[in-house]
Amino acid sequence: IIGLAAAGEDPGDAAAQYLRGQAGRVKDLGDVERTILALRAAGEPADDLVETLLRAREPDGSIEGLVNRTAFLVLALRVSGRPASDPAVRAAAAWLVREQNRGGGFGTAGRGSPPSIDETAAVLQALVQAGRRRSSPAVRRAGAWLVRRQGPDGGFPLSPGAPSNAQSTAFAIQGLVATGRDPRRVRRDRSRTPIAYLKSLQADDGSIRYNRTSRQTPTWVTAQALAALVRRPLPVRPPPKARAAREQRPPFAALLLAVRAALFP
């Protein structure tokens, strides 16, 4: 849903209704956050899940004291209509800044934990959404750390020194775009760009390989790569046509779709 919406395609009522039907079964807070992002990308409300997140916050504003979940908390709140000035958004962003490592990167467990590309890119997107200026010290240092981790093949690894992969490269691209950098101009020495690296992993059927040797979880990988290839950082809003159609939908239409999905799965 997020990949299609990023590319300007309406994810469709069927996908949105399926996701809404599963939302009540989602318990893991990271899954709750991603479900909110997907529902909102499809133009669907997610207020109940937002309340679940708000109730789960720690006193310091984080989610379970984890960097990635706290970053996605900010993204989920912002895409749900909460302003950057919202107390929950501000508290989460302040917690994230305090957890930045000396070198500029972010690790899953916070300050002192090994930094990763995925976490750092997620935080960059969250901080910008929380109203932090691109020139602010935390954003500037994290962006510089990220750029220095580009591999000689143009891609980005999950952790420094590991082989490049499509998903971490996609996250890196989204983080760079959020901070105002053009990923089509990011090169390590004479390497290809991260955009070119992703394109080099495309298979004949259109899917994006995880890396040179693996085609694991092709739908997931391709969806993440798609959002990066069109240079859309998180959170992704619904395409204009899809948003307009849902705003004009009669109140009974959503119920009708749910009934149809139950009768004809």
Attribute tags:
265 residues, 3% strand, single chain, two-stranded antiparallel ribbon
Structural overview:
With about 260 residues, this protein is mostly helical. The chain contains 13 helices and 4 strands. Strand 3 and strand 4 form a beta hairpin. Helix 2 (about 15-25) runs antiparallel to helix 3, helix 7 (about 115-130) runs parallel beside helix 9 (about 165-180) and helix 9 (about 165-180) runs antiparallel to helix 10. The longest helix is centred in the N-terminal third of the chain and has 13 residues, at about 30-40. It is globular, with a radius of gyration of 18 Å. The protein starts with a helix and ends with a helix.
Topology summary:
Elements (H helix, E strand, L loop, with lengths): L1 H5 L6 H11 L5 H13 L5 H10 L10 H13 L7 H12 L7 E2 L7 E2 H13 L7 H12 L7 E2 L6 E2 H13 L15 H7 L17 H12 L10 H9 L2 H13 L2
Antiparallel strand pairs: 1-2, 3-4
What is the radius of gyration computed over CA atoms, rounded to a whole number of angstroms? 18 Å
Based on helices, strands and strand pairing, what is the structural class?
mainly alpha
Give, in spatial order, the strands making up the sheet with the most strands: 1-2
Give start-end ranges of low-pLDDT stretches: 250-256
Helix content: 40-55%
Query: Could you give a short account of the major beta sheet?
Result: 2 strands, antiparallel
How far do the termini sit from each other? Answer: 18 Å
Q: Helix count? A: 13
- The count of strands amounts to 4
Secondary-structure element pattern, one letter each: HHHHHHEEHHEEHHHHH
Coarse morphology: globular
